[in-house]
Amino acid sequence: MRVAGRRRCVVWSNVVRPPVGGAGYGGLNRVLAREARRRRNLRIFQWARMARAHRGWFGPDRVHPSGVGYRARARGIARVVRRCH
Q1: Which of 26, 38, 59, 64 is 20 to 30 Å from the Cα of 53, by its Cα?
Q2: Which pTM was predicted?
């Protein structure tokens, strides 16, 4: 954010991943949400929400999406980027 400055729009995706050793990524996603509330130029793409609604987009590792999932994520990120301006 320091490099981007206050005028540039920054789009960041939150994280989806099953817990490893009992620890998930909820804490990181909460930090991103908190930072987005503080910084007007930070937009969070809600990948975690989208992924929960479409569990069939993921392979057996539950981390990597299928082609359908990757395309949907790309479209979602593009929507957020377009709202930057």
Answers
A1: 38
A2: 0.86
